[in-house]
Amino acid sequence: MYERILVPTDGSAGVERAVEHAIDLATTHGATIHAVYVVNTASYGGIPMETSWDGIRDVLSDEGQAALERVRTLAEAAEVEAEAAVLDGSPSRQIVNYAEEADCDLIVMGTHGRGGLDRLLLGSVAERVVRSSEIPVLTVRVGEPPDAEERTASEASSSTEESVEPAEDAP
């Protein structure tokens, strides 16, 4: 079913969950992993001219190479073939373009599950990819859901309390 699976990475520990999911799918289907890291050059347009873009680009490219090396290592451990590329530009646009040009069958990417103001202010690369890609996109929630800490704390406290039946006349 899948021959080429694209997995964008930003090198974060959370995104590794999406990478592992993509590798599992590749193992099951005998597919090749295509890993990409996008240097978001669109967000650096306002940098003063006296700042050396080449120096910043080199640092970001090095981070990208390290992120891609991690994907290669995980793929190799699972005996999955992997190709990797560092791209420049708008992340969502570059991910969709690469997927189309490499004839990928699936895009697997992490999403932080942000909502409300965070999503409005920060945007969502995953959302833009889902909306603009004609290739199927599988999103994998990375990190903890926003209320996970609260839920964990309340579950811990309720598990140590005795169960109390409500009174029959309670609303």
**Shape descriptor:** globular
Count of helical segments?
Answer: 6
Strands of the widest sheet, in order across it, are 3-2-1-4-5
Order of helix and strand elements from N to C terminus: EHEHEHEHHEH
**Rg measurement, Å:** 21 Å
Mean pLDDT: 81
> Could you give a short account of the major beta sheet?
5 strands, parallel
Low-pLDDT windows of residues: 148-171
Distance between the termini: 54 Å
Short description:
The chain has 6 helices and 5 strands. With 171 residues, the chain is an alpha/beta fold.
Can you tell me about this structure?
The longest helix has 25 residues, at 53-77. 46% of the residues lie in helices and 18% in strands. It is of the alpha/beta class. A 5-stranded parallel sheet has the order 3-2-1-4-5, sandwiched between helices.
Which helices and strands occur, and which strands form pairs?
Blueprint lengths: L3 E5 L7 H14 L2 E8 L13 H25 L4 E7 L2 H11 L4 E6 L4 H7 L2 H8 L4 E5 L6 H13 L11
Parallel strand pairs: 1-2, 1-4, 2-3, 4-5
Helix pairs in contact: 3-5
